Amino acid sequence: MDTSWATLVTDVGFPIMVTFYLLHRIEGKMNVLIESVRKLPDKMQPFRPV
Predict the structure, then answer these.
(1) pLDDT tens, 11-41?
(2) CB within 8 A of 35, min separation 6: which ones?
């Protein structure tokens, strides 16, 4: 029974850790992208026709 747990942890644990690491890295970049999209209408204001 111990070998099944060890196999499960090695087979599933590594992909889970890689996924959490990548999500953590992407989160910061997504926050910057969201903030840029929110500021876009204000930056486009001078280009709107009267």
Answers:
(1) 888 899 999 999 999 999 999 999 999 999 9
(2) none
Q: How far apart are CA 9 and CA 3, in angstroms?
A: 10
CA-CA-CA-CA dihedral for 5, 6, 12, 16, to nearest 10: 110
Q: What is the pLDDT of residues 1-13, one digit of tens each?
A: 566 877 877 888 8
Distance of alpha carbon 28 from alpha carbon 24, whole angstroms: 7
CA distances (Å), origin 50, targets 6, 29, 39, 41: 68, 35, 21, 16
